[in-house]
Input
Amino acid sequence: MKTKIRKMAKIGQKSLVLALIFVFLVGIQVFASNSSTFNQTINAGSLSVDVVDAAGTTVASPAISLGAKTFSFSTQDATGQFGTSAERVRASNPTTTAIWTANLAASATTATWTTGTAYYDFNDGSGYTDGADTDSYGGQMTVNPSTGSITGVSGCATTNVSLGTSDSFVEGTTNSIDIMSAAAGAATTCRWDFIGAADNITQKLPASQAAGSYSITMVLSIS
Amino acid sequence: MRKLITVISLVFAVSVLTGVLAALASDTTEFSQSITGSLDVQIVDASGNTVTSPGVAFPSKAFSMTYQASAATLGTSSERMRITNPSGTTDTWTLNIAATSGATAAWSNGTNYYDYNDSTASAGDGVDTDSYGGQMTIDPSVGTIAGVGGTATTNVSKGTSDAFVEGSVSSIDLMTAAAGAPKPGQWDLTGTSLSQTIPGAQTTGSYTLNMTLTAT
Output
């Protein structure tokens, strides 16, 4: 009888040990499947410049119209506004590098205003008349960003972010004009909007320029 | 699972592509400039200023029982006919002159009349719709065309002498530009000869007739 009781006790002890091991293992399994590691990488991104509306939405086809002029046998100036509330230039710097410059250039230094059949220049150093550049058209565009304003988006500070100065395109010499730039000490991972003042674009029109609807594509770049 | 990953990859790719396209579209700006203007004719002075009330005064004539002719010049240094073609694509145009009130117009002092387009000889009244004699002849061929601001006169020519005839010659060409004329361009015409026959026994008075220049 005693032997049977001992055997029963041993079996009970073994069963208890097995049960404890089972509970321990299941417990570990529950702990293992109970947690999950979520990974998220945020890349630094890169500098970009965009034309956006007041709500910050990209403008699909940004454009500005210089004031209509009447045909004249004399030279004349046309003016327009680059950077309005509805078409503001937004510089985005998602990096940790403070320094950048946003500028404006034509799609090529040999570009011209054109109706398709008539032309005038945007970068002739002679101004209204044709100079020594590669084309045979007069005309010159001046961009004056200095009269505009810079606003930090979502509270970004404008410290060390500054407006460009007035300049005129000259083929081979001044192929782009700085609109705004950030110097050392400017905020990083930030965005800024440039809105220009009225008549910050002046285009010299040659005398006797044929009537028509002219256009030229300008490109914003940031680096 | 593989299918799900493929779909997710495609969605991501399309999303990235859309983002790239949007960025490309928005970093260019189209500048546009309109230069307006249309074919135009004006009477201007030597400085190019518009003459507000241009006129041609035929010399006074004494009353006469027989018909007579009066001559004058259309287009002087101080009242030159200036045509402006601002087009860069169209080089042909014509400048003509006609009576403002049309084929039934007449010289008038308010109570008396004589005609400007009756082809009957000796300023007699013919078979036209009015009962007045008289005819005006215009000869631009004796005039001078000058390009303004260095505009060349290539393929720009003066009209030939012609007389108004009711029903058949209602306007007379003064100057025309043929294919190959400069465009845009601007030209002045001066020295066109005018001659008007006055019927015999025409009542004394100050007669006027409004004429209109048209460029087309």
In short: Chain A has one helix and 15 strands. Residues 1-32 of chain A form one domain. Residues 23-31 of chain A have pLDDT under 50 and may be disordered. The helical segments of chain A are 2-34.
